[in-house]
Write a structure and sequence with these properties.
The complex is a heterodimer. By secondary structure, chain A is of the alpha/beta class. Chain A has ten helices and twelve strands. Chain B contains six helices and no strands. The N terminus of chain B is likely disordered. The chains are: A alpha/beta, B mainly alpha. The interface between A and B is medium-sized, with 23 and 22 residues.
Chain lengths: 272, 207
């Protein structure tokens, strides 16, 4: 498991296989015997995983920043297809492996057409489940690499996901990982206001505690670096009581239209 | 209006108590500034630590004077011992809060911590004013009432802040860090109230 319950690789355990490195997995299954055997193996391999004995809403799965999910549809009952469809729609980058008891061809076809990447029938060996998760994650990574091949350009800033860094005129902005993820998130939704809570959940991977000013502080740091590297532009705009919007504006153009200031939001105003 | 007549007692103890109150105010104001400008103003933790050491020095001087042979403390020595200890606690908890912000690797402040540090600062202003009036022999009640009110505010803020940490889905590391920090701030404010209680007792005995 991770963070509060991060499973670290026990001494003497085999090193994490390169193809599985970075896979964050959730297992949605109430079959305690199956879960115990699988998680023991995952722990030995040093994987980050979380077990869920009950289904959780897709937005909570988003917050877990998963790469893959192994789900037993039997646990979900009659709402299993709806859950599968909602998860696949909400998290297009998530690898979904259905691992469930004996099923019909029609059920398997339906599941795969709704967005599942693979279907395993119980009883099954944990090694096979892990290998299939690795294969799904590998395919996802390749697809993502193809999609993310080009840098993202906003104003004078070139965002390079392959290097986890942003550049202006070839000079690095020296962004920390958190700052880079924040910039990338905002840049992927140009012109859209992202709520502070949403930003926190997507970048930090957890729900934001009421009053937490992490997003404000990291926006401030990011602004300082953007301002230093690209002084002629204004990138991040504050929406008081809501959040932030990335919309590159040349200061020269903006000043000729209407001078305006972008003070940083200093207080949390939304309720708990 | 002078409430108490003191006779030929050790006035220096009252001067030191005033210094202690001013030191507590200085430390809490720095913590408030540190939180408002966090993490850029993290270096204030060092200055708060110096206040904590200064507080220890003042407490030591007062205790030393109270225990000197032939000492004539202006008030009951046991009350003064307790008062020194409570004043020292204010600065100790303030310094502990500043220290934990760094020790726990806090990346950004919480709005509730900023509010609590503001309440603490206002309480230490009242403590400082009460100690000045104690030295002058004036009525302390207005300051003591204010400290009690601020402690109530701090208690409510702290409870709400801690409760908000236990919403579903919050990073357990955030819960661990901030629960400790909120409690530390609350303890600093509680120590101000202890000072107020002791001053109230001293004032009543002298009537």
């Amino acid at each position: 498991m991770w963070d509060d319950s991060v499973a670290t690789r026990p001494e003497g355990a085999p090193a994490v296989a390169p193809q599985s490195a970075g896979v964050r997995l959730a297992i949605v299954d109430s079959d305690s015997g199956f879960v115990r055997v699988l998680t023991k193996r995952l722990e030995a391999m040093g994987w980050q995983f979380r077990t869920l004995a009950a289904p959780v809403p897709p937005d909570e799965l988003v917050a877990m920043r998963l790469n893959a999910i192994v789900v037993d549809l039997a646990l979900l009952g009659p709402r299993s297809w709806e859950f599968l469809e909602r998860v696949c729609d909400a998290i297009p980058g998530l690898g979904v492996i259905v691992c469930t008891e004996r099923s019909s061809v029609a059920q398997r076809v339906r599941g795969l057409r709704l967005g599942a990447d693979d279907w395993i029938t119980k009883p099954c060996h944990p090694e096979e489940v892990i290998a299939r998760v690795e294969a799904v994650a590998r395919r996802r990574r390749r697809a993502a690499a193809r999609t993310d091949a080009g840098p993202l350009v906003v104003g004078e800033v070139e965002i390079r996901p392959d290097q986890y860094q942003a550049f202006v005129g070839g000079q690095t902005l020296d962004l920390t990982r958190r700052e880079f993820e924040l910039l990338q998130l905002l840049a992927e939704a140009p012109g859209q206001v992202l709520q502070r809570e949403e930003v926190y959940q997507r970048v930090w991977g957890y729900a934001m505690a009421h009053g937490d000013r992490s997003v404000d502080v990291f926006v401030r740091k990011l602004r300082q670096k953007l301002e230093a590297a690209s002084p002629g532009w204004r990138y991040i705009h504050t929406h008081f009581g809501i959040g932030y919007r990335l919309d590159p504006e040349s200061k020269l153009a903006a000043d000729t239209e209407e001078p305006q200031q972008e003070p940083e939001e200093s207080r949390v105003t939304s309720g708990p | 209006m002078r409430l108490f007549g003191r006779g030929a007692t050790d006035d220096r103890v009252l001067v030191l108590l005033e210094e202690s109150g001013a030191n507590a105010h200085r430390a809490s104001a720095m913590l408030r500034d540190m939180l408002a400008g966090f993490p850029e103003r993290s270096e204030l933790a060092r200055d708060i630590l110096l206040c904590e050491q200064e507080g220890d020095r003042i407490a030591h001087d007062i205790i030393h004077r109270l225990n000197e042979p032939g000492s004539r403390p202006p008030y009951d020595a046991r009350d003064l011992h307790a008062l020194v200890s409570a004043l020292d606690d204010i600065v100790d908890y303030t310094e502990q809060t500043a220290d934990w912000l760094g020790l726990y690797g806090v990346e950004a402040p919480m709005a509730q911590a900023e509010e609590l540090s503001d309440v603490l600062t206002r309480a230490t202003v009242a403590v400082e004013a009460a100690l000045a009036d104690l030295h002058a022999g004036d009525d302390l009640s207005v300051h003591l009432v204010e400290i009690h009110q601020l402690e109530n505010d701090g208690d409510r803020l702290s409870r709400d802040a801690i409760a908000s940490l236990f919403k579903n889905g919050i990073d357990p590391m955030v819960v661990i860090r901030w629960k400790d920090i909120f409690e530390s701030l609350e303890q600093a404010i509680d120590s101000c109230e202890t000072v107020a209680h002791l001053l109230e007792g001293i004032a009543l005995k002298k009537r």
